[in-house]
Write a structure and sequence with these properties.
Blueprint: H1 2-58, H2 62-128
Length: 129
């Protein structure tokens, strides 16, 4: 009986370790993806801002500055929109990952409950003999 319990416990811990490793892998993949989204957004914003600043530095008269003001506002607006879109994408990725992690935890809990109920049933059956 003790040997059977040790085998079941060992199988359960191996299963738990496998699920924990999968959860860690999913969390890491999510973090990498979120970092990539944010990095691409930062790169686009830096490129747009740098390009605008290059034009601003080359401006020589008041008329040039007057035409650059609306362009500067558009660059700022575009940058803000990219940041907002990246934030929404990151939120969506986090939500999807959370759902998957929740399903993994739920399935692990259900499997552990089934195993525990089966073990209790076997012990109860063995003690009735």
């Amino acid at each position: 009986m003790s040997y059977q319990f040790n085998d079941q416990f060992s199988a359960y811990t191996h299963q738990f370790a496998a699920v924990a490793a999968r959860m860690n892998r999913l969390a890491l993949e999510n973090a990498e993806t979120m970092f990539g989204v944010q990095l691409r957004t930062l790169e686009k914003n830096v490129d747009a801002t740098t390009s605008f600043l290059g034009e601003l530095v080359e401006a020589r008269d008041l008329e040039s500055y007057k035409t650059l003001v609306p362009k500067g506002l558009q660059v700022a607006r575009d940058n803000a929109e990219r940041v907002a879109a990246a934030g929404q994408e990151v939120f969506g990725l986090t939500l999807k990952t959370s759902e998957v992690l929740g399903q993994l935890a739920k399935s692990q809990f259900e499997a552990a409950t089934e195993q525990a109920q089966a073990t209790v049933a076997k012990v109860a059956k063995a003690t009735k003999r």
